# Entry
Amino acid sequence: MTEVVTNTAPPLRDEAAAAATAAATASGVQVRTLAEVADLTAVTRLFESIWRPAPGNQPVTSELLRAMVSAGNYVGGAFDGPDLLGACFGFFGGPAKGGLHSHIAGVATAGHGRGIGFALKLHQRAWALSQDVPVISWTFDPLVRRNAHFNLTKLAALPEQYLPDFYGPMNDGINGAGDTDRLMAVWDLSSPAVRAAAEGKPARFDAATLRARGAAVALAAGSDGGPVTGPADAPVVLVGVPPDIEALRRADPGRGRAWRVALREVLGGLLAGGASVIGFDRAGWYVVSKEQT
# Structure
């Protein structure tokens, strides 16, 4: 007698949609794609309230969003009743629909601590998979600890490139007027790590344990809060970032710039040399592997 094995696992699209719905429910919001001018205008106002740009330097305009949506790109918003608490905007890159680049995402102060950013990204993932898009990429400031933890641990994205002064001066309330170094994160939407993270079971790293096992500390905070470099002479290397770079930039711009230079040299140098960031410890450490995979 022939045994018939039935695959009862839901298709990836259904799995992603269910994870997105669960995340939105847990956050107390409804997440949906946006296309109407009024909603897109609300998105631009939300982003302005978060980034606080100089006059005439909007992160995006409603006209641009309208054009992007009409061309088939993604704008999503998270609503608590009538209130827009978060939004995310992405567009396709080449080759055609080979990947979605998520240009900007943000959550209003009133929505902090509720998991709205996670709900937005899972909605974006489900939407991309429904379009047969396998990968989403985006940039983030590698000095911002909470963003590194969110992107690399909570979402299980992985950095592929260190990009010095990627945007040039942005002159806003978050980036200031300094260099805008970025990491390019790549989110493989169907990888086991990403699927586990979407279900709330991300892989985690512990820097103290890794140090006990011989990991090298290539960058850390000194007693004065400034960067201190060390040798990257082990297969696993830890690269630290300060607890709150945005506050440090305001209180001590010189020390903030010193961190930018040090991280560019250490983390940027490791990536340029073929090493890979494999995770992030919430205590403020990039975990870098020098072993070739």
The chain has a mean pLDDT of 93. The two ends are 43 Å apart (CA to CA). Residues 270 and 276 are 8 Å apart (CA to CA).
